[in-house]
Specification:
By secondary structure, the chain is an alpha+beta fold. Helix content is 15%, strand content 38%.
Length: 245
């Protein structure tokens, strides 16, 4: 099985596809009235569906963001700014990763996360002419107040917990699940050692930002997940749809 897409309802799938292909280096194909965009490989795609519009990111909603992992965030930022895209300054966020954020033209949040921590990046990690050549949709991020329910759902589908990351300074922790047999290098899933390893995985992880006991609202333009190999549609622990790929 494979986490194969995140479904987002947008105002103009064709127009937004141009941003993801021309700016972020993805490829695209039509799928009925929808546009499917993504990188070549085993990571998830974005399935852009008509009927949305007026999306505003809200920290009180279930859906948060997609994360794109890249070998050199600084090169990626220079590329984006040269195309007129507003993007935050990259920084090392605690002992999580070297990252930055932007929004697509409809307001959906995109995180760029480097394979290596600040100061650990190898020389010539990426091609300056094509900084997204080795990019991957590394994370689809949801918020939850009940990680036990999310954990039970993910494990029931055959996903494995790969990393747990403490962000106590901001009142939450992060939990990463994937359809994989991979074993992290350190069996202690809280270990910082596992994080750069995680950012280099070629597949997409389902990331939960867990604020214990918090209540979140549905995000109307988030239409759920697609899982290749799933035999029938179902609902996740929150009630959002998960459909076969």
């Amino acid at each position: 099985m494979r986490l194969s897409a995140v479904l987002l309802r947008v105002a103009n799938p064709g127009q937004l596809t141009g941003f993801y292909t021309e700016v972020l280096g993805m490829t695209a194909r039509a799928q009925g009235p929808n546009c499917r965009v993504g990188y070549v490989g085993q990571d998830a795609d974005l399935l852009l569906m008509p009927g949305g519009g007026g999306y505003t990111h809200d920290g009180g909603q279930r859906y948060w963001k997609i994360g794109i992992t890249v070998p050199d965030v600084d090169l990626a930022v220079s590329h984006l700014r040269a195309k007129g895209v507003e993007v935050s300054d990259p920084k090392q966020f605690l002992d999580i990763g070297y990252l930055c954020h932007l929004k697509d033209p409809e307001g959906f949040v995109v995180e760029l996360l480097q394979h290596d921590f600040q100061g650990n990046r190898p020389e010539n990690a990426a091609d300056p002419a094509d900084p997204f050549a080795k990019a991957c949709i590394g994370q689809i991020t949801l918020r939850t107040g009940d990680i036990a329910a999310e954990d039970a759902f993910c494990r029931a589908q055959g996903m494995r917990l790969l990393s747990v990351q403490d962000v106590a300074k901001y009142g939450f922790d992060l939990h990463f699940y994937a359809f994989t047999d991979d074993q992290p290098p350190n069996p202690d899933l809280w270990s910082v050692e596992n994080r750069e390893w995680l950012w280099k995985r070629p597949y997409t992880t389902l990331e939960f930002q867990h604020l214990a006991g918090a209540q979140f609202a549905p995000a109307p333009d988030y239409r759920g997940l697609e899982v290749q190999g799933l035999s029938a549609s179902l609902r996740d622990a929150f009630g959002d749809p998960v459909r076969p790929g």
